[in-house]
UniProtKB/TrEMBL annotation, chain A:
Protein name: Membrane protein
Organism superkingdom: Bacteria
Family assignment from sequence similarity: Belongs to the ThrE exporter (TC 2.A.79) family.
Main location: membrane
UniProt keyword list: Cell inner membrane, Cell membrane, Membrane, Transmembrane, Transmembrane helix
Organism listed in the record: Paenibacillus physcomitrellae
UniProtKB/TrEMBL annotation, chain B:
TM segment ranges: 144-162, 169-191, 197-216, 228-251
The protein's name: Membrane protein
A Pfam entry, by short name: ThrE
InterPro entries in UniProt: ThrE-like_N, ThrE_Dicarb/AminoAcid_Exp
Keyword Cell membrane belongs to the record: yes
Domain Threonine/serine exporter-like N-terminal: 14-251
Family: Belongs to the ThrE exporter (TC 2.A.79) family.
Compartments it resides in: Cell membrane
Keywords (A to Z) from UniProt: Cell membrane, Membrane, Transmembrane, Transmembrane helix
Topological category with respect to the lipid bilayer: Multi-pass membrane protein
Length: 145, 252
């Protein structure tokens, strides 16, 4: 039940962000799907591994889905990846950190801010790794687009 | 509105600048803007061109004896439809499927076109997303409705405040203040269980998570100026939201 609720909410939330970011209509489903896959992988890995590792793995999957969709629909990767990584981005953490700063709780604030920075770094790593993989696979073909 | 025939034709340099400007304003990555501009330039017969893109401006030099041109970018939003459209025009141009005039026409059309989804639909999407986020981040089913309402109100407010107040910081601060008060009101009235989850869900459409991630990506790609300025923008937004919500806690 818990997993089903998470699947449904993450799909809707990601697709909703697709609408906010004005993603083309026929890509909204892929946006939601990417967000859902990433979030579920994150949820499954998070209890066992470090948050950074789970985030890299989840973003890598989002990246691969985005690369494939981008190839199929002939659109930039960012159209698909942006909505997909939304559930993973440390927006809540960044907000929490700033709230602690404002409340003069500097120790917690610095900790949270450092964590938010590390997580955004790992999102970037996940995306870059999937992109590198895509480039390596593409280089095998004689003609590149 | 004047007809297209009265508009003077764009020079190849201006076509590149226009494409870059639309992409940057719509939230494309720095390297993609540079790459697209140079590809378009190449297909229009400008060789050896250089483009230097930062989040606040584009400098483009078309190579040879041409003068460099500069465009300043004051406003940035996320509009993936425009990024995708400019990208497809650039592809068609490189493949020789459309002429320079057609590309210029289409680019002008994209620049004038507005958001494909109506404001009402955006607010609805933001509010449903907020409700879903409250549940994803561990809230109970009772937190869904409060987050849905305050998230929708918050997103509508940020659009309105952006029009009223020219300073982004204050618009975001005021919105966060509103979200904090509405969420607190829901808890006070006994609707909803966890204040923190409701607030985090409601502010998700505003938080600069994407900016932070883009900033780190820019830094990794060697676009140091872009990375730092995007990071600064993200910090400022996070600060505005955090301060707005915290202000509510201070007074209650």
């Amino acid at each position: 039940m818990y997993i089903i609720a998470q699947l449904v909410t993450s799909f809707i939330a990601s697709a909703g962000f697709g609408i906010i970011f004005n993603a083309p209509k026929r890509t909204l489903f892929q946006c939601g799907l990417g967000g859902m896959m990433g979030w579920i992988i994150y949820l499954v890995l998070d209890p066992y591994y470090d948050t950074v590792i789970s985030t890299v793995a989840a973003t890598f999957v989002v990246g691969v889905i985005s690369q494939v969709s981008a190839r199929v629909y002939r659109m930039p990767v960012i159209v698909f990846s942006v909505a997909g990584i939304i559930p993973l981005v440390p927006g809540g953490l960044a907000y929490d950190a700033m709230r602690k700063f404002v409340e003069n709780d500097y120790n917690t604030a610095i900790q949270l801010a450092a964590q938010a920075f590390l997580i955004s770094g790992s999102i970037a790593i996940g995306l870059v790794v999937s992109e590198v993989l895509n480039q390596l696979l593409r280089k095998r073909k004689p003609h590149q687009g | 509105m004047s007809s297209r025939e009265n508009v003077p034709p764009l020079s190849p340099i201006d076509i590149c600048m226009l494409a870059g400007k639309i992409m940057l304003q719509s939230g494309a990555e720095t390297y993609r803007v540079e790459d697209t501009m140079i590809r378009i330039a190449h297909s229009l017969g400008l060789s050896g061109s250089h483009s230097y893109v930062t989040p606040t401006g584009i400098i483009f030099q078309a190579g040879g004896p041409e003068a460099a041109k500069l465009i300043r970018i004051a406003e940035r939003t996320t509009d993936l439809e425009k990024v995708a459209s400019v990208n497809s025009i650039s592809r068609q141009l490189v493949a020789g499927e459309i002429s320079a005039e057609q590309a210029a026409d289409q680019l002008r059309g994209i620049e004038e076109s507005s958001h494909a989804y109506s404001v009402g639909l955006q607010v609805a999407a933001a509010s449903i997303s907020s409700g879903c986020f409250a549940i994803m981040f561990g809230g109970s089913i009772y937190d869904f409705l409060p987050a849905l309402i305050s998230g929708g109100l918050g997103y509508a407010a940020v659009i309105l405040f952006h029009k009223l107040i020219n300073v982004k910081f204050f618009a975001e601060f005021t919105t966060a203040l509103l979200i904090g008060m509405v969420s607190y009101l829901f808890i006070y009235l006994g609707l909803g269980q966890e204040l923190d989850k409701i607030i985090i869900g409601s502010v998700m459409p505003l938080v600069p998570g994407l900016l932070i991630t883009n900033a780190v990506r820019d830094l990794m790609a060697g676009h140091l100026v872009s990375g730092l300025s995007r990071g600064a923008e993200a910090m400022l937004t996070a600060f505005a939201i955090g301060a707005g919500v915290a202000a509510v806690f201070t007074f209650l």
